[in-house]
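My current task is to audit a protein record that another person submitted. Alongside the sequence sits a line of tokens, each denoting a local backbone shape. Where you disagree with what is written, explain briefly why. This is what I was given:
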Amino acid sequence: MSGILIVEDEQAIALLIKYNLEKAGYETICVSQGNLVLPAVEKNNPSLILLDWMLPEISGLELCKIIRNNPEHKNTPIIMLTAKGQEEDKVAGLSAGADDYVTKPFSVPELLARIQTILRRAGNTNNSNNKDYVFNDIVLKTKEKKVFRGDNYVQLSPTEFRILKMLIAAPRQVFSRDEVLKEAWGNNVYVEARTVDVHIRRLRKALNEFGPDYIRTIRATGYSIDDHEIEEKDS
């Protein structure tokens, strides 16, 4: 493991996280300013980034977007860590590409559980079969962790990649929100169901840039990938 990058400008919180992560057996790297984050990512290639929203120089939200658009680090799991706890803030963080969102004050055991879950899911993706999946003009390459629509590369976060893989491996099968939660985050009881909606919306937006909408939303039931007429969509 290359270590967990802790991005936090409040020293007491950074030390608390660092102590507990190292006690749990993780290596850590700490930075406290936004302008130091990207150099730290390039130098250390972290296994996961804990990213505070409110940072000097550049916000965690903007950094999340930049990291997601970097081909070398686009698959690095990111957990937003912030005092911004309103629903619209969570949606903004997840929409920027974060895999999870933890609000302050937080429970250390909860934070550790989320980290373990995301790292386990990332490891399972790396070690899963190398089968390619195809649905019409959408191609998902498991080994390379890349998605193409026709000749176009589709930029997805690790979470959205896992959701698409679940859908495309069983086309036209409807998966409940709970099933999507379990597939994308494991048995992590802390993840809110609303998070699924945000990632489905991001997945749909990324795919639809290059073709028709195949992500189907069945009200009060779940999601599927289907090339039949779409009856209901997320707003």
Summary: Confidence is low (pLDDT under 50) at residues 230-235. The chain has two domains: 4-125, 129-225.
